[in-house]
Amino acid sequence: MKTIIVATDFSKASQNAIDYAVEIALQVNARLILFNAYQMPVAVSEMPIVYDTEALIEDINKQLNTIKDKIQQQKGSRLLVQTEVSEGSLIGCLKDICEDMEPYAVVMGSQGTTAAERFFFGSNTLYALKHLHWPILAVPPQYTFKGIGKVAFASDLNKDVGKTALAILKDWVTDFNAELHIVHSAPEDQLYENAVFASGAMQKEFNLLKPRFHFISGKNVEESISQFVVQEQMDVLVLLHKSYGFIEGLFHKSQARHFALNTAIPLLVLHE
Hints:
It contains nine helices and ten strands. The protein has 272 residues and is α/β, with parallel strands linked by helices.
């Protein structure tokens, strides 16, 4: 059975990620793992401070089980939901659980609204996208699951794509019976001259999925792709980890990235 892990800190942002994860788990018949990582506060006083670890863990489990019970009340026996709690840094604990479970995807919120949520679902999500070697699905705040009928894959075309990433992408498109749209974007004066020719190899690789190719230009590659996925009503944007510039652009705090940050669809990052 496939496994989907969704990280939560019990904020509104993480609850939205859980709601999305529930729907994709149902679509692909996967079990859902509600995951929380906690760290005990570091004492900065010379006086010894005693923390009630058992009470903290009990409270975390209580909150996770409340979410679990609510999901099962709504979805019944159609979805297997489990909970996991680990002590340590979020990314370190996620790495450990992923090595053990080999998940179909790790789902996280891409941005919170409060300062604490922005830290958890901002810097940590970006770090996970860059360093965890399993499919990471970042869900924008308040984004509602509408099904996955169109998958956009942002591709350089002139760079090789690893077999592992290709296999995962094929599985996602097949599992959701979705359309595959391969998007190549570059500044107009740098648009890859042989893009159509170069797309031939990828056409052959994805032949059975009947992909559609799109060649777009613009001064800013990130914004061009962001505009494309919104205008063409894509449901998920797939990127390779090596496309770091675009990943960073989606999470950048500058005004120039405001459009991409606030209108981005769920982002699935695959590693080679």
